[in-house]
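Task 17 of the worksheet. Students: predict the tertiary structure of the chain below and write it out as structure tokens. Keep your answer in the requested format; marks are given for formatting as well as content.
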Amino acid sequence: MPLDSASGVFYDVQGQGQPLLIGLPLMASLTQIFGSEMQDVLDGYLDRLTDRYRVLRVDYPSIGGSRDIAPQDLTADRVCADLLAVATAAGFDRFAYWGYSWGAAAGLQLASRTDRLTALVLGGWPPLGAPYKDILQATRLKQPDPEPSSMKILRSKQQYRQWETYYASMLSWCEGESVARIRIPKMVFFGSEGDLVEAGVPIRIASIIREQRTTLEGQGWVICELADKDHGVCMAPQLVVPPVRAFLDGALP
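Model answer:
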């Protein structure tokens, strides 16, 4: 798997057809980081996509085989520049983007800043009314002792500060105006029980998407709520890939 010299991002491309960049949590080094028990999850995605899509997976940010990014540098601007650079390195001119949770938040930024996207899929993240301030507060509270699940991916506790940098950079973003300008085919999917509590801070995700549903559908978003599933639904490709694949097939003939 190659390393993009411009962004320092390690990546992998599989399949053929329409270019599709999938962000976190389906990183390039998924099984190397989490072990062979994640092979079924990876296969569950790729087996359902690679017949029609050229799937680009990346180790980002500062995980797996990618180079380190100083935590204070991980702004939304930097994230978008890096994702576009690695897409270029993979031979993607225009491409669809699919991300979950933080990967979805990054994709929303990408869609609002470039005309290279052909379609956008957000999982587990509200395009409007997103809880940036709440997540920033939780991130600051967790900084001294990040949860083990984060440290499974990150290289040091110091690196956890990158999330604080990212969400702080979002506070001045004109969310409503920016989202309204996204004209490509776009979809949101989420587990109905997908609200979280991080460091004692409520992080409303599913409930915000439901509250914003009428507005989002008026802007052309396709909404898919997966009943009785929590924020970890992204680890169930048999549930999430079929509706996303149907959306992408229709959006990208």
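Marker's comment: DSSP finds eleven helices and nine strands in the chain. The chain has one domain: 10-251.
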